[in-house]
Every structure is written in structure tokens, then in C-alpha cells.
Design brief:
alpha+beta; two-stranded antiparallel sheet
Length: about 575
């Protein structure tokens, strides 16, 4: 199946040999930031593991890595590829593609175990692994870590059935990887698991049998040990008033989101036009084929439920007389119950004009105060819909011979790829020698903090802030010196004051601010940076002439490097 899933991903995302080495997913904003996260993570694990969060952005503040996701579980894989290739972009593309293949594979494992049908598992895997959400978020690599969700649910169900300690430990590891890869997924996972376990205990009439509490404790302790070193500094940083996210109605799941495909959808351009192409947060369309199969799947479960009550079977029990090929329908129902809980929270702070449960979670449950796009919680519902599609497919093809079933599954894969086909945007960050020369020079200079000019202002030009400052952060991993500049999901409290003062460099006000911030080096970029105007040649020469006599300056490629020698 791995080969099949690799082919599916290659067809959907079309990674050309040239682009995989030179073009980053989506654009030069968030994906460049993610490169910085991952490279910094690899550097910090080796050189400063006890100060992992004290990244080289937004100097002189601490724990600045916590202004956005940490993505710690993705760091080793990325840095392994980067170490072998020496190419930031190639390593990011391989990570992105691998995460989608991983998601397809883990969904297949979960649904194959639940339905005991290989073809149905392929259908569900492609339904969850290739949909509007996945395609639209191609540049948000941390959100492609979806595969840890079906893996964690698979391990949870195995614990419920078999009560093995090793499985419980692996459940804790997988849950930790999900949480540390993307906070949104960890937050909603923390809601879905209690719903599933609670439903299981109720179905067993509060007699779950021996070993369950012990296994859940092992999984919980494992998560506590693995997550806490990252969660504590993250929680401290997020308590800063400027980093606490306000409850957003705009980020909630909307009625038409399940019918909104990825931007530029070839098959459904009118549906994709519900939102501007820049809005990728409300693209939750899984395809009409998936919807049709899921409806059949609902009917199958309803019919199974009616038979269940007629026969008065023991809830959640795996009866010895049950055929080995019988699906685990009760566990499927529990996953659907968890999806209902996720859907309620995905609707955000207001539901039908009334306060929703999300408000309680935002105020009282750790992690939720840092969430803004509650619609992302609906990934659980996408998984549930894919599972229902697999159930529906299994029922529709139950009387077909094996070869015909495989053909029908193959037809579904083709239809899904057609329905989800859309442009795959990409961006570029410069690796020109002239642009990187100043960073290589900094790598050989004595320690000291750095200011890069012009410092982009997110208040006046958010695009320039993203497309200029994020690539600079990637380049800063050449020298790893701290930067006053930065781009992230949050800002330190004095950042705007610093911008206002430092844009006047080398005025007395700017030099005083640099002295207060203990900044030694100033990089003045000349010409154009990633399509945005930097400092003109004339203005740069005027800056150099106005420098204090103690400063030294030299030109390296397309930038001046000024050493203030504080």
C-alpha cells in the first residue's frame, strides 16, 4: 500500500524534480518560518537543549520559539534530510510529502483494523489524506501531521480491546507527537479521547474489566513526561497578554465550509470561490463521492444498531462466536461520538446565537486560549467521514469478488483525485551568493545581536513582514546570532516601539535603542528582498556616512554589515 500512497501523493501534489529542490510549498512566508523552526530545533537539541525555546528571534526576549508551534517531533526527520542534502527547501518538501504519505498509511491501518477490509481502508485513507483541507494547507507543514491522529486512535482502540502495556506506552508517544506537532490537534485530541473512553465505560455498564485504568495511566504518564518540557515554557509565553488569542467567530466552522474545496479547484471552481484564494482556513470539502459513500455508511450503522438492540448483545464485547471478518462497529460508533464533540467545538464561541462550549474550554482548559481557528478541530470530522465512506464502500461491494472490489477502490481513488485536483502553489527564497554573503560573514564574527534593516512593520504591510522577515530567519541559521527582527504568530510587547525607533537609523534615537537592546551588528539590505523594496543604494550610502566614528562598515554582496562595537 505504501507504493500506492506514494503514487497518489505524487499525482495530487506533482513535485517536479526541479521544484522539490528550489520551490517551497505555498509561499515564502509561513513555510520559511517553519524551516527556521525546524533548523533551530535541530541546532538547539545539540547546542542548548535546556534553552530550546530561547530562539534567535525577537532579541532580547526569551522563549520566543513559543510564539508559534514548536513542531518538535518533526525536527529529527527534517534535520536528517537537511543534513544529507544541505538544502533547506528540499528537506521541507520531503517532510511535507512524507507527512501526507504517513497520514494515508495510518488512516489505512486504523480503518483496516476497524472494518477488516483492505479495499475499504484504501478508500478511507484517500478520503482523509487527499481532501480540501489537506490540499489547501499544503504550506502549513505542521498541519500535515494529521497521521498521528488516526495512529493515536488506533492505539487507543487496541488498548481498549487488549490492555497491553506496550500499546499503552506507544499510545502516549503517539499522542505526544500529535500534540507537539500541532497544538490544535493536541487540544481536540484531549477532548475526543475522554468522549471515546467515557462512551466505552458506559457501554460496558461501568465494568470495563481489569487493566484499563493501568493502561490509561501509562499512556497519560508517558504524555506528561514527553509533553511537559515543551508545554511549560510554551504556557508561560502564552500567558503574555500580547500573545493570548481572542475568541474569534471568523475562525469558526461555517455552514458552507464542508462544501468549499481548495483554492482554484479545477472541478468545482464555483464552490472554491466561496472564499478568496488567500483564505485556506475554511476548506473542508472531502468530495461528493466521499459524501455519497458516507451516507451509505450511516445507513449501515443504523441498520447494525437496530439489529444490536433486537439481539440484546453485550455492548462493546467481542463475542467468541463473532466471525473474524466482522467489523468493530461499536468502536466505529465511539469514534463518531468523538467527532460530534469535535464538531461542537469547531463551531467556535457562538452556536445558533448562543454561547458555545468552546467558551468554557477557552477559559478553563490549557491550550485552548492559544487557539484562534476553531474550524481546524473539524479534522476529526473529516476522519469520521472518511471512515463512514469506508464502511459504506465495504457494504456496497460486499458481494463482489476480490478483484472487482479492488477495481472499485481504484475507481474511487481516481474520482477522488479528480475532485480534489487544484493548483499547488509554491514560493521561492533566494539562495543567491550575493544575498547570503553577509550571513556567512556574520558566522565568522564575534558574538552579538543583529538588527536587519529595513525592519518590516506588520501594521502597515503584513505581506512584506511575512515574505521578507521569514526568509531572513532562515538565513539567520547560517550564523545563529540573535536577531531583534522576527516573524511569527505573536510579537514581544515592545516590538512596535522598536520598529518606530529603529526605522530612523542611524539617528541618535535609533542608536540609543540599539544600545538599550545590546545590539552590536546592523545589516542594511540594499535593492530588493524577495520582491519587496529594501534600502536604496543612495539611502544606504547616507546611512554609512552618518555612522558614529566608532562603527565599522563593509559591503558583503547585496548588504552592508555595520559593527557598532558595543
Amino acid at each position: 500500500m505504501l507504493v500506492l500512497f506514494v503514487v497518489v501523493v505524487a499525482i495530487e501534489f506533482r513535485p517536479g524534480l526541479h521544484s522539490v529542490f528550489n520551490r517551497i510549498p505555498a509561499n515564502a512566508g509561513d513555510p520559511a518560518l517553519i524551516i527556521w523552526f525546524l533548523v533551530w530545533g535541530g541546532h538547539a537539541f545539540v547546542h542548548q537543549p535546556l534553552h530550546y525555546f530561547d530562539a534567535n528571534a525577537f532579541w532580547p526576549y526569551h522563549s520566543t520559539l513559543a510564539y508559534s508551534e514548536t513542531m518538535a517531533p518533526l525536527v529529527p526527520y527534517y534535520n536528517a534530510v537537511y543534513g544529507l542534502s544541505g538544502n533547506w527547501v528540499f528537506a521541507l518538501n520531503i517532510l511535507d510529502l512524507s507527512l501526507v504519505v504517513f497520514n494515508l498509511s495510518m488512516t489505512y491501518v486504523l480503518v483496516r483494523w476497524l472494518t477488516k477490509r483492505t479495499d475499504a481502508a484504501v478508500v478511507a485513507a484517500v478520503a482523509f489524506g487527499i481532501n480540501g483541507y489537506v490540499v489547501a494547507h499544503w504550506g502549513h507543514i505542521q498541519l500535515q501531521a494529521l497521521g498521528f491522529l488516526p495512529l493515536s486512535l488506533f492505539l487507543l482502540f487496541k488498548v481498549l480491546e487488549h490492555r497491553r502495556m506496550l500499546t499503552a506506552f506507544l499510545l502516549g508517544v503517539s499522542g505526544s507527537a500529535l500534540t507537539l506537532s500541532a497544538l490544535y490537534y493536541g487540544a481536540i485530541y484531549g477532548v475526543v479521547v475522554p468522549i471515546i473512553v467515557g462512551g466505552y465505560v458506559i457501554a460496558r455498564r461501568f465494568k470495563p474489566g481489569p487493566g484499563l485504568v493501568r493502561c490509561l495511566a501509562v499512556a497519560g504518564v508517558t504524555m506528561l513526561v514527553l509533553v511537559t518540557p515543551f508545554a511549560v515554557p510554551y504556557a508561560r509565553a502564552q500567558h503574555q497578554p500580547n500573545l493570548r488569542r481572542t475568541m474569534s467567530v471568523e475562525g469558526a466552522l461555517r455552514p458552507h465550509d464542508p462544501l468549499t474545496p481548495a483554492p482554484g479547484s479545477y472541478r468545482y471552481p464555483s464552490l472554491a470561490a466561496h472564499d478568496p484564494p488567500s483564505d485556506v482556513e475554511h476548506r473542508f470539502f472531502p468530495g461528493f463521492t466521499v459524501y455519497a459513500l458516507a451516507i451509505v455508511g450511516v445507513g449501515v450503522l443504523v441498520a447494525a444498531g437496530l439489529r444490536f438492540w433486537r439481539r440484546r448483545l453485550e455492548p462493546m464485547a467481542q463475542d467468541d462466536t463473532e466471525p473474524e471478518t466482522a467489523p468493530r462497529l461499536q468502536l466505529i460508533v465511539l469514534l463518531l461520538l468523538g467527532a460530534v464533540g469535535a464538531l461542537v467545538l469547531a463551531k467556535g464561541p457562538t452556536i445558533l446565537g448562543h454561547a458555545g462550549p468552546y467558551r468554557f474550554f477557552y477559559d478553563h482548559v490549557p491550550g485552548f486560549a492559544s487557539t484562534r481557528i476553531t474550524a481546524r478541530f473539524a479534522v476529526v470530522d473529516l476522519l469520521a467521514g472518511a471512515l463512514l465512506a469506508g464502511v459504506g464502500f465495504a457494504w456496497l461491494t460486499r458481494r463482489l469478488p476480490m478483484l472487482a472490489r479492488a477495481g472499485a477502490a481504484g475507481l474511487f481513488v481516481v474520482l477522488q483525485l479528480v475532485e480534489m485536483a487544484a493548483p499547488i502553489p509554491s514560493g521561492k527564497i533566494s539562495t543567491a551568493t550575493s544575498d547570503l554573503a553577509v550571513y556567512h560573514e556574520l558566522a565568522g564574527r564575534p558574538s552579538g545581536a543583529v538588527l536587519e534593516l529595513p525592519i518590516e512593520d506588520p501594521r502597515s504591510d503584513p505581506a512584506a513582514w511575512a515574505y521578507v522577515e521569514a526568509p531572513r530567519m532562515v538565513y539567520s541559521t547560517i550564523d545563529f546570532k540573535p536577531r531583534l527582527n522576527g516573524y511569527s504568530g505573536g510579537l514581544p510587547p515592545t516590538y512596535y516601539d522598536d520598529i518606530d525607533a529603529l526605522q530612523t537609523f542611524p539617528s541618535a534615537t535609533a542608536l540609543d535603542r540599539l544600545d538599550q537592546r545590546r545590539v552590536r551588528y546592523v545589516v542594511v539590505h540594499v535593492g530588493v528582498e524577495n520582491g519587496f523594496p529594501a534600502v536604496s543604494e543612495t539611502a544606504a550610502q547616507d546611512m554609512v556616512k552618518a555612522l558614529p566614528p566608532t562603527a565599522t562598515v563593509a559591503r558583503y554582496g547585496s548588504a552592508f554589515l555595520i559593527d557598532l562595537k558595543h
